[in-house]
Design brief:
Layout: H1 3-21, H2 30-54, H3 59-76, H4 87-98, H5 136-149, H6 154-177, H7 186-189, H8 192-200, H9 205-220, H10 224-235, H11 244-251, H12 255-273, H13 284-292, H14 298-307, H15 310-330, H16 335-349, H17 359-362, H18 371-379, H19 384-393, H20 400-431
Helix pairs in contact: 1-2, 2-18, 2-19, 4-5, 5-6, 6-9, 9-10, 10-12, 11-12, 14-15, 15-16, 18-20
Length: 432
């Protein structure tokens, strides 16, 4: 790295660290500080990524920056979640299990659980009339986090930190396996999206990322059984990994190998759900959530302005998603690129895109460092305005202007990349 590049790069890093540190000292209402610092650090992160991608960074600097990222993570562990109150549900589900009760059996405000009520729980849970939506491995980890931290958020954050170390390890191994620059790991390690969604707001997605990244690692390392088992575990945290099953399936040549890619992950999911189905309804609330809830889905919101029917708009978005997804999985692209494109279009056509969902895309950026993803994982911070408005006014309302600013650059970049890489592929064919 040249001296000038070093100066600018580490100036950005210093500025970035200062902005993150402000979260502890600004005298404003927490949600105001949270929103300002989250968005500001995300803008700085885009500049940092530009320096990462165009500069040669020595191993010592990479190690030092990862150490800095880990220190910031640890510093955020005692910070009370600000942009989301989901962790109350995690703690409650863990507590219910600690008392030997199936978390899928009762809604938090059910009279059968009155003996477990405290001043905090389930009073502060959002939608206490609805049963839990989270998959079974999530529930097991909620139980473990309750044993560690009781009704505090500390337990879940400690688990998130441990799991994030494995995510970084998985990324390092994949980067080595694919002969990619070691510096690419910084695109994940320094991401404000990861820091705010996991180490401030304690979202459970961070528990699923290492399973997914190691599934990809073992698949590319031709250890398919391990890959499918880990993909199944990822699905038991969040179902997003379902999008990998058809990609694995199509990538296999023999029928028996294809069947393994399909059955093993689903069998893992079935085994984890099995202990819960006899005394509860694990899918009841999840089905209701996926059928009715919407947030920050750009294509869904545009079409719903005209259709004005939730289910019909969802069906249209599903058809559009498949029209893009099917050609991707049958294309001759590299499997990592297939996964990246599939996850990206999933969010573009999904009716629900909370910022923490996009961490699954951030996971792939060190492997497929495309600007569409880098900008998306940064501009998703603008969704914090909805939570800001809600905490100040009590009204949950999305802003069309914010969504345009959030998505327009991302979609333009994505289309540009598709055209550019298509031209590059055609040029390579012409040369041959």
């Amino acid at each position: 790295m040249k001296k000038t590049q070093k100066f600018y790069f580490f100036s950005y890093i210093l500025l970035y660290t200062v902005f993150l540190s402000l979260l502890f000292i600004l005298p404003f209402k927490p949600i105001l500080s949270y929103t300002f610092i989250y968005i500001a650090s995300s803008v700085i992160f885009i500049i940092i990524c530009r320096q990462i991608l165009k500069s040669d960074i020595s191993a010592n600097y990479i190690f030092g920056l990862i150490a800095l990222a880990l220190i910031i993570r640890i510093a955020f562990i005692p910070v009370h979640p600000i942009g989301s109150d989901d962790y109350y549900r995690y703690v409650w589900d863990g507590k219910v299990q600690a008392y030997g009760i199936n978390p899928y059996e009762y809604a938090p405000n059910n009279a059968a659980l009155d003996a477990l009520h405290t001043k905090i729980l389930p009073k502060l849970i959002n939608f206490p009339k609805i049963k839990t939506i989270y998959p079974p491995l999530s529930e097991i980890l909620f139980y473990l986090s309750y044993l560690i931290g009781g009704e505090s958020f500390i337990g879940i954050k400690i688990l998130l930190f441990i799991f994030d170390l494995f995510t970084l390890l998985g990324l390092y191994l994949l980067i080595k396996q694919r002969n990619l620059p070691n510096k690419n790991i910084l695109i994940y390690a320094l991401s404000p999206l990861i820091l705010f969604q996991f180490f401030v707001d304690a979202h459970l997605d961070g528990l699923g990322l290492p399973f997914l990244i190691f599934s990809i690692f073992f698949y590319l390392n031709d250890q398919k059984i391990w890959s499918y088992l880990l993909l199944g575990l990822s699905l038991c945290i969040k179902p997003l990994g379902l999008i990998l099953i058809p990609i694995y399936f199509v990538s296999e040549r023999e029928l028996f190998d294809r069947l393994k890619s399909l059955t093993i992950p689903l069998l893992v999911v079935g085994l984890f759900y099995l202990p819960y189905i006899f005394t509860g309804s694990p899918f009841q609330a999840l089905i209701n959530f996926t059928e009715n809830w919407t947030f920050n889905g750009i294509v869904f919101n545009i079409f719903d302005l005209f259709i004005k029917d939730n289910q019909r708009t969802r069906l249209l978005c599903g058809i559009l998603l498949l029209s893009f997804y099917i050609p991707i999985i049958f294309s001759k692209r590299d499997i990592l690129l297939k996964i990246y494109l599939s996850v990206f279009i999933l969010f573009i056509f999904s009716p629900i895109v909370h910022p923490w969902y996009v961490t699954w895309l951030a996971l792939l950026l060190p492997l497929i460092p495309r600007w569409s993803g880098i900008v998306y994982t940064s501009l998703i911070s603008l969704a914090a305005f909805t939570e800001l408005n809600y905490q100040i006014s009590g009204v949950w309302k999305e802003s069309a202007l914010v969504q345009i600013i959030e998505y327009a650059p991302v979609i333009i970049l994505f289309i540009y990349e598709l055209i550019k890489y298509k031209k590059d592929e055609n040029n390579k064919i012409a040369v041959k």
